[in-house]
Predict the 3D structure of the following.
Amino acid sequence: MRYLLWFSILAILLAEPLLAAEGRMFELETRPNETTNLFPLWLDLAIPGYGAFHHREYWWALGYASAKISGAWLIYLAVKNHHYWNSVAVAAETRQQREHDTLMFANPQGNGWATAQEFRNRADSAFVMSVYAVLFETLVYGVSLYHTWRLNERQRLKSAPFYRLQNERTGEPRLDLGWQNTW
């Protein structure tokens, strides 16, 4: 209840000079008020780092582009590695099914021997690495899109028109309405 009383008193004190003054609203600075531009967001999905490049933040664009390209390369390598070890594990398991004793197979990557279960474990760990690569790429795309969205919002708020309510007789500003100084 106390807050309602203070809010009412504050509203009366602020509204009284505005109502008493012979003021009018005029536009100080005219720039086109763009709505949220989704074009850089869509191109940021297709071209790595375009959203930051569009807003002239070249270091961010370079960082996002390199992270997205390296993430795509990591996905490629992880999936290729998983397919390789999965094919080795399937071949070893197929041969192992014919025998009752545990067979030891030559390790394709070097000296030593491995069982069919060890090949299956390598295939599973390669699959986990591909999942991590996809999660990394998704995270990079999400951060890039969020950053592009924030840059678009900043640009939209800076391009909004700025209005000032002032007294016509004295030219004294009474109330400024605009968003230029919020960023």
Q: What stands out?
A: Residues 25-34 have pLDDT under 50 and may be disordered. The chain is about 60% helix and 10% strand. Residues 88 and 119 are 7 Å apart (CA to CA). Residues 23-182 form one domain.
